[in-house]
Amino acid sequence: IEIDAASNRGIDDIRNLREKVRLAPAHGKFKIYIIDEAHMLTQEAANALLKTLEEPPAHAIFILATTEPQKLPDTIRSRCQRFPFERAPISKIAEKLSEIVKKENIKISAEQISQIAKAAGGGFRDAETLLEQVAAGAQDLEKLVGFSRLGELGDFFNDVIAGDTKKALHFVADLSEAGVESKRGWEAIWWMPEKSSFPS
Fold first, then answer.
1. Could you tell me which PANTHER family the record lists for this protein (predicted)?
2. Is 161 helix (H, G, I), strand (E, B) or coil?
3. Which residues lie across from 2 on neighbouring strands?
């Protein structure tokens, strides 16, 4: 059972969950509750959840998923086992996208797959979403992932190193005016330093 704590974050939502937790599973030995974005719970909701975590029914297993564990109350963190998940390497994401492209017969180049993999920020789901948008023709790849001015990124990094903030900020503003989504634009800048010609 998955619960989105970003939209079900109040104490009433957790009280409702606690009522359901008491019921034994109709099939199988356990009921598994996945609370996604657990850090979004209100303080009151977190306190209510704590009571269940302290004395959970034998059939209940809770998985709290979060990208910001430091925002969870210490009382909750102390009662959980932590299993950190690292972001997926670009090579693995590109490999998965290549499999999808081959299976679905999508016309896209290896370079475009690489760009999508870099823009996904380590997330397989984000990468597949980007691929779907590009394959459907709903979005231009260069604007979508922020690589439309790839050849100028080397100059951008050199401007930053030289302390020419005016030129660097002008480049960022141009990306926005070109219709590049801000998050994707920054990801493009983040992933491209190896392509820049830094002065020695």
1. PROTEIN STICHEL-LIKE 2, REPLICATION FACTOR C / DNA POLYMERASE III GAMMA-TAU SUBUNIT
2. helix
3. 34
pLDDT, one tens digit per residue, over 103-144 is: 999 988 898 898 888 878 788 988 998 899 888 875 567 666
Distance between CA 93 and CA 168 in Å, rounded? Answer: 30
Q: Give the start-end residues of each E strand in the chain.
A: 2-4, 31-36, 60-65
Question: Domain spanning 2-77: which CATH class is it, in words?
Answer: alpha beta
Query: Among 68, 63, 13, which residue's Cα sits nearest to residue 33?
Result: 63
Every domain of the chain and the residues it spans: 2-77, 90-195
- b or e along 153-178 (b: 16 or more beta carbons within 10 Å of the residue's beta carbon)? bebbbbbbeeeeeeebeebeeebeee
Q: Could you say which DSSP state residue 180 is in?
A: -
Q: Which two tokens stand for residue 35?
A: 């609370």
Place of tokens 């960022």: 172
Residue with tokens 């009382």, as numbered in its chain: 75
Percent of the chain that is helix, strand, coil (3-state, to 5): 55, 10, 35
> Which residues make Cβ contacts (< 8 Å) with residue 55, sequence separation at least 6?
none
pTM to 2 decimals?
Answer: 0.56
